[in-house]
Each structure stands twice: as C-alpha cells, then as structure tokens.
C-alpha cells in the first residue's frame, strides 16, 4: 500500500482569514516537509478516477485511476490551501474581505495543474505506441513507448520544439518512470518515455537474456534504443537517461547517427564507470539504496511503488542487466572519442549510494584533456547535486526537469544545492505565484 491516504478537498472552503506574508507560507511548507520526513508520515489523496465518479475505482481498469504521482501532487496542493487558510489574509484575503490576487492566481493555476496531471496520467496508458524493431544483431522486439504532451495552449512552443526521450532504471517501463517523465512533460515539451527491452511489457527474443549476459555490455540495449528512436521518426531529440538508462544512452552516443540526432544528452547517475562486481553492486543497491529509500515514504512512493501495478520484473533479463551494470563499461579513451552534436552533461548525487562520484569526476576530467583540440566538440560537463541517494532525481523530479530545461545555474564541476530543486509541481507553482506577486509589490 502507498504511505498514508486522505480524501478529496474543496478549495472554495479553504479561504484564509488571518494576515501573513507569502514568504512565511513558503517557509512553513519547507518546515512541514522536514517534519514529514522526520516522522515518515507522508500522506497522499485516496484512490480516485481521472474521469467519472471520483471515488469509484475499478481495479481492473488502471487507466481510469489517478496514479501515485498525481495523488501525491493533489495532496501537496491541499497542504498549500490549508496553509493559506491558517496563515492569513495577505496570502488569502484582501482588506475588503475578497480573495487576494495571490490566492486567486494560485487557485486558478492549481486547477489547471490538476487537469494537466490527469491528462498525463491517462496518456501513460492511452498514448502508448508498440514500437516494432527487427535487426540481425538484436532480433525482433516490440518496445512500448508512451508519448506525453500537454495541449498546445499549455506549452511554450518554439520553432525548434525538440522532444525529450527518456530511459530510466534497470528493466523499468514508462509507468515506472512516471515521476521523471511527467515532470518533464510539465515543462511544456513532448516526452517519449521508453521501456527497457528487459521489462515484462516488452516483447523480446526468447534468448535475449542469454545474449545480453554473453555480451556483458550495454551494446545490445543501446542498439534497441537507437532503433526505437529511428522508428519513432525523431530527426532530433533531447536524450535524458537515468541510472541504467543513462548508461545505455551513453553507449548509444558512440553511434554517429544517434549522436547527431541527440541535440543534447543528459545522463543522471550513470553506472559503468568502475568495476564493481555483483557482490558490491548488490550491497550498494540492496544494503544501502533500497534500505534508505524504504525508510522514506516519499522516496518509496516515487522510486519503488510508482507504476508497479502494471508489471513485475522478469528474472532472466534483470539478472543479465545487473551483470552488465556490475562491470566497468566506459574507459577514458571511449569517453574522449564521443562526438555529441550538442551538450553532453553528466549528473551525480554528491553522496550517491550507487555511483562512485570521484571515479566519474576523474574519468571525465581525463577524457576532457584528451578531447582538447578535437574539432568542433563541446567538453563533457559534470555536475554534482546535493543528495544522499541514487533516487534523489526521482524524489526531486520537478526540480530536475526544470534544471535540465533551463540549466543548472552553476559552472561545470560545481555542486547544485538541493534547495533549488522542488520536489513537487505544486510547490514550484506556488513559489512562482509568490515570486510574481512579490515583483508586483516592488514595482
């Protein structure tokens, strides 16, 4: 079961009556989040339908039910409404007793956010394309790819509306990367959320696990990614890989055609920079990462529970993938030979439970030295983000998505403060409303 659950809410009943300052509400939100983490008492709204009767959920039709990420966001909106009610008139009512601009603006945008979240939740089921691949090297595959996209009036479209392609952790599908994929779609971009060929929703050759194990690298998985992008007809895209997905994308970037089409490549917490062995990988994943995540309800919800209603993990391909993850896959020379069309950025958590930050930093520095003088190539950028688990990018997916779209705001090699990365779209929305109101007051 998810962490806590609570019922619905009526924003119209939550209009505040006592004065306060908007910045106080942001501070109180932060304080509440710290307390929730300490008490491990995260709550989300109860199961409900995207369409039709709110409370009648049919377990046999998961496409009608709001997923865990949407229910988490709805609870965050409720928390903000409650604080507005408790904290005051400056945030809630004007001196004439009418709702202030802050409350009206937040209420309007929060309703739109909920509509957008419901739409994206539906698209994870309804906008899924079974991409068929056939290649002599990898055999026949059918890989589900979900396309997430807000309506045109909710997007900041440009002449070069480059979509994102996302690939997440070991053997995951598009449902299991909902936190990251939905957050990126909320940035106003099209997102193609890929499924690993080792996942139960994908159709792979019967001997796929055997071939992956014999190969011992990410080469075969990278070939599936390359062919899937071609089948989708994407002439250019922004590649975002997380965990094993980052490692597969990095291997795919060695292909000139893939590298030219990938206008930007962001790799978050990639493995394969050191030779771990299965025992050490197992200790880091089970003994450190899993234990830490399971102790924190929000981490558990976003990293482990999200999407698990749809599929389990198959034995053979999962073990074969783990075998590849345990080995060193990227040498300094291979990194130096990469020729991306645009930026190549690698991100690790400052205290990652799975990735050796020093090993990644050292190899990138050495590769960039070799790359100096290479024709028309960007250096590989490297950033650390304040965080103590491999799953931090999923917990703070909304902040990460915004940072990938707009840039980290610090030079390559520096650390990004976790305070810059909102853990919910609702919090980011409210912060934006408060900042807008503050600018008005200064004018």
Q: State the total count of DSSP E strands.
A: 11
Oligomer: single chain
Question: What best-fitting shape do the alpha-carbon axes yield?
Answer: globular
Give the class-level CATH name of the largest domain: Alpha Beta
Q: Helix count?
A: 17
Instruction: Write down the domain tally.
Output: 2
Tell me the series of helices and strands, N- to C-terminal: EHEHHHEEEHEHHEHHEHHHHEHEHHEH
Integer-rounded radius of gyration: 22 Å
Largest sheet: 9 strands, mixed
Average of per-residue pLDDT values: 85
CATH topology of the largest domain: Rossmann fold
Tell me what the CATH architecture of the largest domain is: 3-Layer(aba) Sandwich
**Which blocks of ≥5 consecutive residues have pLDDT under 50?**
8-19, 94-98
Strand content: 5-15%
Q: How are strands sequenced across the largest beta sheet?
A: 3-4-6-5-7-8-9-10-11
Specify the structural class: alpha/beta
Helix content: 40-55%
Q: How far from one another are the termini?
A: 49 Å
CATH homologous superfamily classification of the largest domain: Alpha/Beta hydrolase fold, catalytic domain
């Amino acid at each position: 079961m998810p962490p806590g659950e609570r019922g619905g809410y009526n924003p119209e009943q939550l209009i505040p009556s006592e004065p306060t300052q908007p910045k106080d509400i942001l501070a109180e939100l932060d304080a509440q989040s710290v307390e929730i983490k300490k008490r491990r008492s995260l709550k989300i709204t109860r199961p409900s339908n995207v369409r039709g009767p709110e409370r009648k959920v049919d377990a046999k039709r998961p496409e009608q039910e709001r997923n865990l990420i949407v229910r988490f966001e709805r609870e965050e909106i409720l928390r903000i409404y409650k604080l507005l009610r408790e904290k005051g008139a400056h945030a809630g009512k004007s001196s004439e007793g009418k709702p202030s601009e802050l409350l009206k603006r937040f209420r309007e945008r929060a309703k739109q956010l909920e509509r957008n979240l419901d739409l994206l939740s539906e698209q994870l089921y309804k906008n899924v394309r079974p991409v068929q691949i056939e290649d002599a090297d990898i055999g026949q595959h059918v890989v589900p790819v979900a396309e997430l996209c807000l309506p045109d009036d909710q997007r900041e479209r440009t002449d070069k509306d480059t979509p994102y392609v996302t690939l997440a952790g070991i053997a995951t599908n598009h449902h299991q990367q909902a936190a990251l994929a939905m957050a990126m779609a909320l940035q106003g971009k099209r997102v193609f959320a890929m499924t690993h060929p080792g996942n139960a929703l994908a159709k792979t050759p019967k001997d796929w696990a055997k071939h992956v194990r014999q190969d011992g690298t990410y080469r075969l998985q990278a070939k599936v990614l390359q062919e899937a992008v071609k089948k989708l007809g994407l002439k250019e895209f922004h590649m975002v890989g997380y965990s094993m997905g980052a490692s597969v994308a990095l291997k795919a970037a060695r292909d000139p055609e893939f590298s030219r089409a990938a206008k930007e490549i962001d790799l978050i917490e990639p493995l394969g920079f050191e030779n771990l062995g299965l025992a050490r990988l197992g200790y880091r994943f089970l003994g450190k990462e899993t234990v830490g995540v399971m102790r924190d309800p929000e981490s558990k919800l976003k990293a482990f529970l999200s999407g698990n209603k749809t599929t389990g993990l198959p034995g053979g391909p999962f073990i074969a993938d783990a075998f590849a993850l345990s080995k060193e896959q990227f040498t300094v020379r291979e990194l130096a030979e990469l020729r991306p069309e645009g930026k190549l950025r690698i991100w690790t958590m400052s205290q990652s439970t799975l990735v050796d930050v020093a090993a990644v930093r050292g190899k990138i520095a050495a590769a960039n030295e070799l790359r100096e003088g290479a024709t028309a190539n960007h250096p590989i950028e490297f950033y650390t983000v304040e965080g103590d688990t491999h799953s931090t990018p999923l917990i703070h997916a909304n902040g990460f998505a915004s940072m990938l779209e707009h840039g980290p705001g610090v030079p390559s090699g520096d650390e990004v403060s976790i305070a810059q990365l909102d853990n919910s779209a609702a919090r980011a929305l409210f912060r934006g409303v408060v900042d807008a109101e503050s600018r008005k007051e200064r004018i």
